[in-house]
Amino acid sequence: MQMDAKFCMACGHELETRDVDGTMRRACTSCSFVHWGNYSIGVGALVVKEDKILLVRRAQEPGKGKWTNPGGYIEQMEAIQDTIQREVLEECGVQAIVKNVVALRDQPRSIHNLYVAFEMEYVSGEPVPDHVEVDAAGFFTLQELESMDVASFTQWLVDVAFHGRSEGLRLDLSPVVPLAGYGLFRV
Ligand SMILES: [Zn+2]
Predict the structure, then answer these.
(1) Which pLDDT tens digit goes with each residue over 42-79?
(2) Which residues contact 159 (CB under 8 A, 6 or more apart)?
(3) Closest Cα partner for 101 from 119, 86, 87?
(4) Do 53 and 115 fall within a single domain?
(5) What order do you get walking across the sheet with 34-35 strand by strand?
(6) Which Pfam families is this protein grouped with (predicted)?
(7) Domain of 11, in residue numbers
(8) How far is the CA of 31 from the centre of ligand 1 (A)?
(9) Tell me: the pLDDT tens digits for 84-132?
(10) 119: CA distance to ligand 1 center in Å?
(11) What is the 11 CA–ligand 1 centroid distance (Å)?
C-alpha cells in the first residue's frame, strides 16, 4: 500500500490526482511537477587487479558482515561516474576510474531500485576500510571468495566481472554531437 504524496516536492503547493498521458498521477496544482513514483539508483564498482576483485565487508545493516563490492547511491547533482569513483575512494581508499557499464539490476518495489554496475580501472591505493560503512577491504581471487561470506548479488556481479562476454557500455567523453550535461555510455 503506497501513500499518496500530498505536497509538491518542488514548490510545496498541494498535489492533485489527474490524468497525465493516460495514467492517473499525483501532480502539482501550481507548477509542472509530476510525482512519477518513488525511485532510487544504486551504483557499484567492479575493480579487478591482477585477477583479484576489490571487495569490502559491510559494517552496517542490511547485510552486516557480508562481503560486497563497493558502492552507494547516486546524488541529485553529481555525475554517476563521479559518485562511484568517490564511493570507492571513501569506502576503502582505492582510486579507480570508470570504464564501462557492465550490468544492471532492476528491482520493482515500493521504492523502485535500479542498480548500475561499472567496470573500473584500478589506479592507486591499498584497500583500507573506512570503519564506518565497511570494516575490512581487500583484493581477492575467485578461490579466496569461496571461503568468504559474499552477498548473493555480489556473487552474481563477480561472475560478470570475471566471465562477462562483452565490454558493455563505454563512457563516451567525446560524443559525435555536443551534448552538454549528459553522462553518456554507449556500445
Ligand atoms: Zn509545485
Answers:
(1) 999 999 999 999 999 999 999 999 999 999 999 999 99
(2) none
(3) 119
(4) yes
(5) 15-20, 23-28, 34-35
(6) NUDIX, Zn_ribbon_Nudix
(7) 1-36
(8) 4
(9) 999 999 999 999 999 999 999 999 999 999 999 999 999 999 999 999 9
(10) 39
(11) 4
* Cα of 42 from ligand 1 centre, angstroms: 27
The CATH number linked to 13 is 2.20.70
Q: From the CA of 76, how far away is ligand 1's center (Å)? A: 18
- CB-CB contact of 15 with 36 (8 Å): no
Backbone angles phi, psi at 61, to 5 degrees: -75, 150
Q: Residue 61's beta-bridge partner residues?
A: none
Whether residues 12 and 71 share a domain: the answer is no
Report the separation in Å between the CA atom of 17 and the middle of ligand 1, taken as the mean of its atom positions. Answer: 13
Provide the number of structural domains found in the chain: 2
Percentage of the chain beyond pLDDT 70 is: 98
Residues 88 and 152 occupy one common structural domain: yes
The single residue listed with the C-alpha cell 579507480 is 96
* Residue 108 C-beta-side C-alpha neighbours within 13 Å: 0
The DSSP symbol for 150 reads B
